[in-house]
Amino acid sequence: MPNPPQLAELILGGLLPLDVRETVSGDLLEEYRESRVPEVGEFRADLWYWRQVGGMWLRAYWWLVVSAVLLHVVRDVFETFRAPSGASYLDGLPTIVYAVVSPVGLVGLVGLATAYGSCRAGRWQGGFGAALGVSAIGWLLMAAWRNATFQPFRHVQQANPYWIQAWQSSLSKETFPHWMYWDGVGALITAGIVLLVASFVFGGMAALFGEAIFPPALPRGRQLMRRWSLCLAALPLVVIGLTGPRPVPAAEVALWAATGGPPLYFDAPHDGQVVAHMDLMRGLPPDIARIRVSESATGATVWDVKPSPALRVCWNGCWNLTLSAGPNPASFAAGRQKLKATVPKAPTFSLTRGTAYLFEVWDSRGRVQRHGFTL
């Protein structure tokens, strides 16, 4: 007697709530065996079964997929349509909105999918299936968005001095369109890895609560699991609300730490000063091989400095560099690490209020992080 695909049956079992699981799965199995297979054959019957399971999954979790794609679209639009100085218009949003639109919000949405799926199905497999499905389908739609918007967005970026300066500073021999294309491909690969890891992490947490702590075979275990699922769903929102924008740079710094690159984020300029933070989670010394400041409009190098010797050290609250309007020291000592300027040759370099600058930092493997600022 033919059976539906095992993976589809497994997904269906984790998708359906406990009170309708046997009824719905039994009805589908009966129609599959008695109607579909004799009429259209086993292969097309398998496709029909997959369509039924996929339709049920989308009806249950479509709003999570749409939310994930909308978060990506909003951030991509703001990243593309930057000010000529390189500043993002996201900087003007309320802090909690900025945190939600950031990559932290996307990871939090995967956690919400895990909690909702576990609560809905009454078992941790439902949460893992929801998280993995939201991540996979969301990522495919993000890739489709990237492909559809590449040409129009490329024309916008090619007219922005910030993106031209970033391309020139990358020392890439590729044309601007090729550079932008592969930069987008790298961002998509990174997003896919982050979503996949988040799915397995949250799925593992759901499995821990569901099997080890609150066995779902017991009625009380199911009730406790649902309560803890709701708590798990609310936790990312509570953390974002309490800490404001602080998890955003922390998450970006953690990503750079995992990939081995130099972390970088800026405080908002005030009183003619700006602070560049280049430490790992504000406590671990970073790998810094070069720092450069140039004018965004002209590309002229204002300051170019390299450490001698190249050491990983903590300095000024780990590694926080203050740049001020007016004269700044060209060469200086950051703890045991001495940084010697190649540009300018003079002891100091000057920054002007109202001028757009591009700050760049490289690690020892040649990877670079950039940030525009205006004092």
Strand order of the largest sheet: 7-8-4-3-10-11
User: Helix content range of the residues, please?
Assistant: 55-70%
Structural class: alpha+beta
The number of distinct structural domains comes to 2
- Strand count, sense and closure of the main sheet? 6 strands, antiparallel
Provide a count of the helices. Answer: 10
**End-to-end Cα distance:** 74 Å
Count of extended strands: 11
Description:
Helices cover 58% and strands 15% of the residues. It is α+β, with helices and mostly antiparallel strands and 375 residues long. It folds into 2 domains: 61-245, no CATH class; 263-374, Immunoglobulin-like (Sandwich), CATH 2.60.40. Strands 7-8-4-3-10-11 form a 6-stranded antiparallel beta sheet, with helices on one face.
What's this, in brief?
The protein contains 10 helices and 11 strands.
Tags for this model:
alpha+beta; elongated; 3-stranded antiparallel beta sheet; 11 strands; Immunoglobulin-like; 375 residues
Layout of helices and strands, plus pairs?
Layout: H1 6-15, H2 18-40, H3 42-80, H4 95-101, H5 103-121, H6 124-158, H7 161-169, H8 176-213, H9 219-243, H10 247-259, E1 265-266, E2 273-277, E3 290-295, E4 301-308, E5 320-324, E6 326-329, E7 332-334, E8 337-343, E9 348-351, E10 356-362, E11 368-374
Antiparallel strand pairs: 1-2, 2-5, 3-4, 3-10, 4-8, 6-9, 7-8, 10-11
